[in-house]
């Protein structure tokens, strides 16, 4: 995980702007504490804060093409970089960095290369000869990317909002699955899939064996690392599956085609929760079963409450469910960092792809079920991807998400939606459970879905609700539209988080960069129409689903 800050279309002397860009980059140095680099000329500035995962010795950035005419500042991992490198036998690669292949692709193909890559990324290329820039973001927005303009009209690109706050008068999210070229300044959607349409998948066959192989391949790809790594193991289905697969491959070195022993063959797993939480017990059972070196990180409610201000600064949102679940993840990441781990696999994305959230029990038919999974994936960059990336990056850790691997998604989103639906015979994520029931304990394979913020201990959310009830008055809520005219808080918990957010990011531009949508158990607003009981609720906890969750309110 790295951080970038770039300035293009510069409206002042770069000698004056360069120190400012260095200060902007410093605000995101937690993303890349290993090295700082910068390129500047009279037309552009590209700054980079590096977290060294692949080729730590020579892969520092910005990277240059052999003729020095192209400059690249990238945050991300290109999992198929070795296959792509093989397509350019005559290209004079300068490093072993996985990201350097981006320059070769751009030089050869122009803008039409992004879908060739399987990876997670947010990057900017500058062409010194043509005075042109090119910006792109990965298919799901796993890597964060923001753009903004200052009062002079200078255009900025940055990995996090905090780098732009106070500098830019206009700030936007760079949309996932898009690129932008300075030739026309337009967002162009490069990530296009037929499976977004129900009619393209409704007659398909479902192969559990194909799903299993595709996920194993994704995890195997994503173990690419020259530094120690681990797995996040909540004890839920998704993290248990990714951890079990990782254990299967962890003894061999992926970069050597599994022909050499791994540099760090012992796989470490990490779980977080309050004393006695459901997740801790389930995670320990899985760790014992698959044979990882397991670490339980226990936190108290007070430690969680004390961390919220820092959490909101790091994750840059006031969304309720994101803050609830980011807090334990943020606390866990600090302990992981103390053990020398720089990369972890996590289970995000499975609930969106397979309809794992408990409100999917209410889906009226296969078409609505499928359409909701597509809607959830479209919004994921503002929620779970943001949480996983920024909670970990706060402590210089890279998070990888195999369920959102581009190749795996093409398999999983093309299976017949009726086989994902929940009925009397099948519980949520039945396909995943069936595919991997032989690799994890039976009690975990068939454990009911727990949202991360619930699973760390139900009293965590209950304590947050008690806190905001004391801190925020009814009168404040009645006048919320005057205090916060942009995305006016819908309840006391959101008001509380919004107040903290405003202290860190006071601009209207920052407030507008955060999504706001009514939700029950993480549903989209559209899915609220599925059940009459949903319409007057706004609670992201899975326990809000009456007659479905075993511990429903």
In short:
This protein is of the alpha+beta class. It has helices at 14-26, 81-85, 101-109, 208-222, 237-249, 278-290, 301-315, 320-338, 350-354, 366-379, 384-393, 406-412, 430-436, 442-445, 452-455, 458-471, 474-478, 480-483, 492-504, 508-511; strands at 3-8, 35-40, 45-50, 63-64, 70-78, 119-127, 132-137, 146-150, 155-158, 168-173, 178-181, 187-189, 229-232, 268-273, 293-298, 343-345, 398-400. Helix 8 (320-338) runs parallel beside helix 11 (384-393) and helix 16 (458-471) crosses helix 19.
Contiguous low-pLDDT stretches (5 residues minimum) are: none
> Which shape, going by the Cα principal axes?
globular
Distance between the termini: 39 Å
Helix content: 25-40%
**How many helices in DSSP terms?**
20
Number of strands: 17
Major sheet strand order? 2-3-1-9-8-10
Radius of gyration: 23 Å
Question: What topology emerges from the helices and strands here?
Answer:
Layout: E1 3-8, H1 14-26, E2 35-40, E3 45-50, E4 63-64, E5 70-78, H2 81-85, H3 101-109, E6 119-127, E7 132-137, E8 146-150, E9 155-158, E10 168-173, E11 178-181, E12 187-189, H4 208-222, E13 229-232, H5 237-249, E14 268-273, H6 278-290, E15 293-298, H7 301-315, H8 320-338, E16 343-345, H9 350-354, H10 366-379, H11 384-393, E17 398-400, H12 406-412, H13 430-436, H14 442-445, H15 452-455, H16 458-471, H17 474-478, H18 480-483, H19 492-504, H20 508-511
Parallel strand pairs: 13-14, 13-16, 14-15, 16-17
Antiparallel strand pairs: 1-3, 1-9, 2-3, 4-5, 5-6, 6-7, 7-11, 8-9, 8-10, 11-12
Helix pairs in contact: 4-5, 4-12, 4-13, 5-6, 7-8, 8-11, 16-19
């Amino acid at each position: 995980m790295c951080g970038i800050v770039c300035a293009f279309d510069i409206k002042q002397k770069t000698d004056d702007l360069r120190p400012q860009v260095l200060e902007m980059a410093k605000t995101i140095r937690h993303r890349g504490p290993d090295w700082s680099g910068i390129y500047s000329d009279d037309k552009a500035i590209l700054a980079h804060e590096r977290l060294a995962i692949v080729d730590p010795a020579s892969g520092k950035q910005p990277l240059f093409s052999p003729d020095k005419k192209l400059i690249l500042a990238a945050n991300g991992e290109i999992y198929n970089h070795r296959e792509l490198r093989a397509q350019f036998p005559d290209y004079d690669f300068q490093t072993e960095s996985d990201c350097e292949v981006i320059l070769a692709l751009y030089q050869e193909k122009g803008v039409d290369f992004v879908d060739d890559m399987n990876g997670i990324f947010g990057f900017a290329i500058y062409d010194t000869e043509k005075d042109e820039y090119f910006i792109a973001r990965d298919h799901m927005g796993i890597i964060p990317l923001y753009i903004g303009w200052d009062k002079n009209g200078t255009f900025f690109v940055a990995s996090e909002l905090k780098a732009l706050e106070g500098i830019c008068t206009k700030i936007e999210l760079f949309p996932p699955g898009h690129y932008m070229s300075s030739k026309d300044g337009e967002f162009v959607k490069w990530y296009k899939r037929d499976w977004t349409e129900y009619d393209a998948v409704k007659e398909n066959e479902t192969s559990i064996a194909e799903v299993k192989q595709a996920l194993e391949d994704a995890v195997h790809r994503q173990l690419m690392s020259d530094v120690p790594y681990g797995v996040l193991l909540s004890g839920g289905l998704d993290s248990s599956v990714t951890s079990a697969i990782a254990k299967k491959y962890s003894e061999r070195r992926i970069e050597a085609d599994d022909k050499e022993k791994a540099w760090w063959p012992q796989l470490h797993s990490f779980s977080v929760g309050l004393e006695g939480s459901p997740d801790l017990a389930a995670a320990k059972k899985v760790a014992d079963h698959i044979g990882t070196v397991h670490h339980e990180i226990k936190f108290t409610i007070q430690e969680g409450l004390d961390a919220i201000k820092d959490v909101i600064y790091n994750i840059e949102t006031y969304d309720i469910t994101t803050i609830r679940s980011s807090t334990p993840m943020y606390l866990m990441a600090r302990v992981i960092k103390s053990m020398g781990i720089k990369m972890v696999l996590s289970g995000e994305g499975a609930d969106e792809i397979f309809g794992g959230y408990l409100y999917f029990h209410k889906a009226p038919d296969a078409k609505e079920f499928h359409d909701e999974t597509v809607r959830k994936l479209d919004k994921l960059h503002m929620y779970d991807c943001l949480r996983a990336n920024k909670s970990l990056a706060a402590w210089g850790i890279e998070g990888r998400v195999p369920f959102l691997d581009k190749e795996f998604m093409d398999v999983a989103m093309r299976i017949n939606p009726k086989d994902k639906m929940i009925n009397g015979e099948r519980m949520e994520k039945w396909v995943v459970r069936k595919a991997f029931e032989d690799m994890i304990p039976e009690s975990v394979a068939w454990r009911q879905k727990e949202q991360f913020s619930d699973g760390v201990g139900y009293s965590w959310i209950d304590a947050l609700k008690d806190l905001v009830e004391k801190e925020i008055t009814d009168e404040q809520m009645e006048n919320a539209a005057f205090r916060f005219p942009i995305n006016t808080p819908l309840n006391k918990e959101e008001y509380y988080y919004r107040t903290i957010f405003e202290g860190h990011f006071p601009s209207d531009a920052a407030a507008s960069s955060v999504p706001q949508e009514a939700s029950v158990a993480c549903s989209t607003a559209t899915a609220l129409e599925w059940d009459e009981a949903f319409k007057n609720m706004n609670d992201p906890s899975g326990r809000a689903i009456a007659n479905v969750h075993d511990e429903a309110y």
